[in-house]
Amino acid sequence: MTDRHAPLWARMFELKDLEGVLGLLSWDEETYAPSGARPARGRQTGTVEALRHQRLVDPALGDQIQGALADGALTAEQHLMAKRLERQRNLAVKVPESLVKAFAEARSTALEAWQKAKKERNFSLMEKELSEVLRLLAQKADALGSTTGVKYDALLDEYEPEMTVATLRPLFAQLRAGLVPLVERIAARGRRPDTSFLSQRYDDQKQWDFTMLLLRDLGFDLERGRQDRSSHPFTSAAAPSDVRVTTRIFEDNPSSAIFSTIHECGHGLYEQGFARDHDRTTLAAAPSMGIHESQSRLWENQIGRSRAFWGHYLPMLKASFPTQLAKVDLEAFHRAINVVEPSLVRVEADEVTYNLHIIVRFELEQALLSGDLKVAELPAAWNAKMKEVLGVTPTHDAEGCMQDIHWAWGAIGYFPTYTLGNLYAAQLVHAYERHHPGLWDDVAKGNFAPLLGWLRANIHRRGFTASAQQIVADAVGGPLEIESFLGYLRQKYHALYEL
Question: Which of 195, 312, 386, 497 could be 446's S-S partner, Cβ–Cβ 3.0 to 4.6 Å?
């Protein structure tokens, strides 16, 4: 680093370290922290958030950033580091420290309420806490502002820079128009695969051991990461050398642990794959959560639900569960893990209906943030929207509006990134196949190094050196589009269901 700007780089390193500390506090809160620790953890998180905020809004840092940006001697990467830090600071300056701290504490309280309410299937137990989170989010959106004047866009920009409701609405409309007829054709075919063998008892420890095997084989470095359990699977990175993924295990549903682990492994591979010379800098980050989700969805669905993948791993799974899978061959297993039917829970949804779940959330959270939908009205509104879009209605709110952690966490604007991730993932695999026609032969052998190496070079190591749209466009040779995704679904499910 240029010595003249040593104080700036030192502050950048410090801010990155504080982000890591916050990540660890959050990870512990969702894994090992005792229930009685919640109030203290909320205060601790609020304190660290406030410290980070103070350092970001420090006027001296603003002067240092501007001095660096005016220095023609900076390398291109140093200039980018300063630009990314400038964006972080500009956003932080707009939000009062008191709001930052209040939001951190409210989020911690809401998470505890969400866990209790979900367990007891009683939305009223989190209504007050969720209302407070939304009240503070509305204040935050107003403080951040947006060039469009749309409150939701201000929060969406945190997860997907430069994306807007005006762009997403027609995109989602096109997806819905393409997906609903496919779902209807599959339903009309009347050829639902047998999934009963997935509802037997699968030993908890054996499931855990199998997920650990998958992590290692896919390339997750267990010397720089670990897997634990949580009520909602997630990935948290204190640093590229300390990446935590979680899964959840149900003894009557092995698919949950298997695909949760593969999904979070995709996130973890990305976090472990940032360029080493970007450590502790603003470039060791994903440019958007959409591109982050592209990595999890790519590994979970395009690879992890492929016939080639299970041609390799089904014999291993059968060795662990010989009784449950004795009469199950590869074709039956492949059809079962790719069954298409409207369902209640997003994280268990199939590839074809998954984005319809996102559309439901996208519409509801805009209404919640604007105040058009009151928190007390959410359960009924959720049920009505699920019936409209997916044709199903929850029997209780734990499988309805309380199923996700995101709103209690305060992550309004995050859900659209899952759909963007699906679109990016399809484009990436399509591009890789064009230049590496042996992809599925490699997958069938359990050889994931070539694909991971390509993703490392084209996505992971680039970090935040460009926008998500530009990085994907460079990798695939074109802009964001939906036809790669729809084409992938049609090819796969037309064959599976003989449409």
Answer: 312
pLDDT, tens digit (0-9, with 9 covering 90-100), for 429-447:
999 999 999 999 999 999 9
Residues 203 and 241 occupy one common structural domain: yes
Q: Which residues contact 323 (CB under 8 A, 6 or more apart)?
A: none
| pLDDT, average across residues 239-254 | 97
In a domain, 157, yes or no: no
Q: Does residue 186 surpass a pLDDT of 60?
A: yes
- What is the reported pTM? 0.91
Q: Which domain holds residue 116?
A: 3-144
pLDDT score recorded for residue 277: 95
Catalytic (active-site) positions:
264
CATH code where residue 85 lies? 1.20.58
Q: Check whether residue 286 and residue 397 sit in a common domain.
A: yes
Please enumerate, as own/partner, the contacts of 216-223 that have beta carbons within 8 Å and a separation of 24 or more: 217/446, 217/448, 218/262, 218/265, 218/269, 218/299, 218/448, 218/452, 219/269, 219/448, 219/449, 219/452, 220/245, 220/265, 220/268, 220/269, 220/272, 221/272
Distances (CA, A) of 74 to 5, 6, 262, 289, 496: 10, 12, 40, 28, 55
Q: What is the pLDDT of residues 25-57, one digit of tens each?
A: 999 988 999 989 988 988 999 899 889 999 999
Which CATH number do you get for residue 170?
1.10.1370.30
CB 182 within 8 A of CB 490: yes
